[in-house]
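Let's inspect one such protein example.
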Amino acid sequence: MDLNVDWRASLALTGTVCKYLALAMLVPLWTALVYGEDLWVFAATIVLTVAVGVALERLDPDPDLGGREATLLVAIVWFAVAVIGAIPYVLAGWGTESTLAHPINALFESMSGFTTTGATVMGDISFEQHSRALLMWRQLTQWLGGMGIIVLMVAILPELAINGSQLLQAEAPGPELQKLTPKIAETARALWLIYFGFTVVYVALLYGLHLAGVAPNMDFYNAVAHGFTTLPTGGFSPEANSIAAFSASVQWVVIPFMIVAGTNFALFWVMLDRDWRALVRDTEFRAYTGAIVALTAVVTVALYLGTSPPLGSLGGVTDGVVENSLRQGAFQVTSLLTSTGYATSNFVEWGPAGEMTLLIAMFVGGSAGSTGGGIKVIRWVIALKAVRRELVTSAHPDAVTPVRLRNRIVDENAVRGVLVFTFLYLFVFAIATLLITLDAARIGYTLTGYEAISASIATLGNIGPGFGSLGPFGSYLQFPWTSKLLMVFLMWFGRLEIIPVLLVFTGSFWNR
């Protein structure tokens, strides 16, 4: 069969990415040296990763990427790094009763990390069960995946910068990629610089709370660990109780940085470069913050009223304190809307009103160009404008009403693309929910419809926690290995927004 894709070029550059991933492993290796734990695990993984990278590079010494090769590269890289990232989990758990010693569990945890999903199969997240080096690797995978591995590679590798626009378009979240500078490599560096800058500021603030005595358990390790998982909207925490393990002061600091992480990072560059009002004038940002405020108001009221008779089912969650209700409501809405997945309390106990509002937040998603998952706010804005146009033209058939965004007419192909993606997203979500339900029934595992729905949207939307047994302090360990493997694919699909991955499985992609 005459293929129209130079797969050797894509695999060769995948090898280059793997070699650079080995450099990132120096962070947990250094942590292992400091704490004297799992040193051999990361030393062996680095050697193996470099060997695989060199072997793949030899498939094509002078790779040349076209449009299809770029799409294939992005799809392969994201799965390959998840496979490599699983190796330390398997090695660390070898010969023990660790759940991560099972390859499927390790792959689930690794894919959840790199795609910044935050779902976990760790039964016990503690320093007694896992080394600080392994947990630091778990955190670091989210930071690497947050802004995008391909974005990072385009920023530092000249051979990828040539086809950088195609690569970034395949990886970037949202329907559009905003070019910030004349050269795409400079755009990639600008995005990573902003991302790195926010991370440094955030870590400094968290550790500052520790030094001030208001967050005694937010030591430097925890500050860095949470810096690696907040800006990428990942949600992994080395603490079993997530952000609930820390003081109210820490929780108030986390909220604005989750909002930052769910914002289009290009807007921050524009603000710094030439227009400080770009943020407040942006249609998507206004819709994004409006959704957070509206949903927070609903949850806050539900929490506050729920502590008073006769709605006492929520008693003890906020104790009828306005600040506590507002903080918990704002935190959890922001966390799930941006797909971060942190928690300050067990929101599965918040009752139907609270749970339904949080489920709605899961479907909203962050902004295009952010590290957030989900459908994305910009798509909802365009879809709602398209619906409004249909209503207008139904009443006035001769009216010409283009969809406008940011005072510009949105191309009809873009509108159609948004509607197709949204339908495809909801279709995949529905099919996955059905498969998860049937698979649970196959082994006799009792799974409620609400849990199946939340498992599907939490993995496809890269959100992490769900409802019921999948709540913020639960795990996905109880699912059969077949469902876990399905969820691995859902996380992969969700991070690359479905189409680039589906495309490589079609015959038309490969044939001339």
